[in-house]
Amino acid sequence: MARMGRPTVDVVLTDEERETLVRWSRRATSSQALALRCRIVLACADGASNTQAGRDLSVHPVTVAKWRKRFAADRLEGLSDEPRPGAPRTVDDERVEDVIVRTLESTPKGATHWSTRSMAQAVGLSQSTVSRIWRTFGLRPHMTETFKLSTDPQFIDKVRDIVGLYLAPPEHALVLCVDEKSHIQAPDRSAPVLPMKPGMPERRTHDYVRGGTTTLFAALDVATGEVIGQLHRRHRATEFRKFLVRIDKEVPADLDVHLICDNYATHKTPAIQRWLVAHPRFHMHFTPTYSSWINQVERWFGPLADRKLRRGVHRNVQTLERDIRAWIKLWNEEPRPFAWTKTADEILERLSGYLQRIKDSSH
User: Fold this and answer.
1) pTM
2) With the C-alpha atoms ordered 39, 42, 46, 47, is the resulting torsion angle positive or negative?
C-alpha cells in the first residue's frame, strides 16, 4: 500500500529567480534569515526533499516546508517576513539597508569604526534605532578579533591526521594532546585582597610582587578527559623527555601512545628523537604551524587559567605548584572530555570560504 502524506509542492525557478536567490544568499547586506530562506528554496528547486534540505541546512523539515509553500504561492515576495500586529514601522527598508551598508562598507571621519552615536548622526536616526538594527543583523562594530593563517605546506595532511585521531582513534592505543603552559607566574599582591561584600566586588591592588615562574607539562586523554601533569622550573628538551618518561610509566604497557604536539623546538631535538626510537610504541603527530586551536589540551588550559591562576595569589613558586597539582587532582576525580564534532572536510571547507573573503590572499 502506498504511503499517504501531504503532497510536496514542486519548486521550479526561472533563470532570473535563481540568479536573484543566489545573489541574496551571498550578499553581505542580506540578513541571515533571508539568506537561509534563499538557500532553502534553491535546495528545493534542485530536487531535495524537506527532510534532506533540513538536514543539509541544519533546520527543521517543517521550516523547509513553510518556505517552500510561501515561495510557491508568492515567489520572491513570499520570502519576506509577514507584517506583525502593532504600530506601523517608522523606519523603512531603504533606511535600514543604508545603516547596514554604511556599517559594513565605510568608516566615520576621524575614527576606525562606527558607534551608535556617530551612525545616528550620519543617517538621521536615533541611537536606539541604530542599536536595534545592529542587534537584529548581528553587527558589532566595536568588537574585533585576531587570526593567524597557517603557512604550513602540510597543513591539509596534518589536519586530516589529527582530526582522524579525534573522530576515529586507533584500537589498543591512547591519544594524548600534549603541550606546555610556560612561564606561569606566582604573583603576590602588594596589599591584602579585600573580600567581596554585598554591592561591592572583590578588590585587589593593580600591582603585584613576582614570586617566580614555573612550567606545566600536560597531556590530555581525548577519550576520558584525564590529565597527566608535571611541573618543571625550566622549559627545555630535558624536561620534555622527563615528561615522556612520566607518560610511559602511567600508560599501560600494552597500549600504543599517540602524542599530538605543536612544533616547538624542544619536541624535535636529537635527544627526543633517540628516546622515541627506543620507545617505538610512541607516535608523534605535529599540529600545523599557528594552529594551536586543533590541540585539545589548549582548551583545557582555559579553565585552569580562569578558575585557578588568573585571580590566584601565591607568595612563591612552591605554593603555586601545590595549587596546580591540587587542581589537576580535583579535575581527574571527575574528568570531562571535550567533544570534537567537526570533520576535516568541514574544517577545510570553512577555511576555504574564509580565505575567499580575504582580498589578495596568497594562501
Assistant:
1) 0.67
2) positive
What residue segments make up the domains of the chain, in order of their start? Answer: 15-79, 93-136, 155-193+206-344
Tell me the per-residue pLDDT of 157-187, one tens digit each, with 9 for 90 and over.
999 999 999 999 999 999 999 999 999 988 8
Topology, domain 155-193+206-344: Nucleotidyltransferase; domain 5 (3.30.420)
Tell me how far apart the alpha carbons of residues 212 and 150 are, in angstroms, rounded to a whole number: 33
Q: Report phi then psi at 173, rounded to 5.
A: -150, 160
Q: How far is CA 205 from CA 189, 194, 195, 309, 311, in A?
A: 6, 9, 12, 16, 12
Residues 13 and 21: beta-carbon distance below 8 Å? yes
Helix (H) or strand (E) holding 188: strand 173-189
* Range from 107-111, 157-161, 329-333 carrying the lowest mean pLDDT: 107-111
Is pLDDT at 28 greater than 80 in this prediction?
Answer: no
Cell of 59: 533546520
pLDDT over threshold 60, residue 35: yes
